[in-house]
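Workshop exercise sheet. Pairs work together: one partner reads the sequence aloud, the other fills in the structure field after running the prediction. Swap roles for the next sheet.
Pair: D.N. / O.F.
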Amino acid sequence: MRPRALLLAGALTLCACAPKPPPQPADFKIDCALGYEALAARIAAIPGIRLANTPGEPYHYFNTADGQASYVVTLPGGAGHPAVIQQSASSDGTIQTGCSYGDKPGYARLDAYLKSLAGARHR
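Structure field:
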């Protein structure tokens, strides 16, 4: 075998052994019909999802590995609890959708606050 062919074969072998990154949840959409507990569990199980460290906050913040989506899952004591909000990046900015299962005025405040943060990032 030629030296170049051996080098190429070795490189291909190494690439085949490298761990593949987890699939990205580009098409994951929140489904409010699941209910708060089931939806929160589905979000936590998204491949590659990362829980942001938020000690003392009444929310869990989850971010996808590719940065294309984030999720806010309220905890007891958080505005709007129980609620889940998804923010997705788009060419027009940030698309925000959510599910309010409880405190509607608190959810409205949380929704407005997160939209204002997203708007500030795109200025």
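Discussion prompt: Helices lie at 3-17, 36-44, 104-121. What would you look at next?
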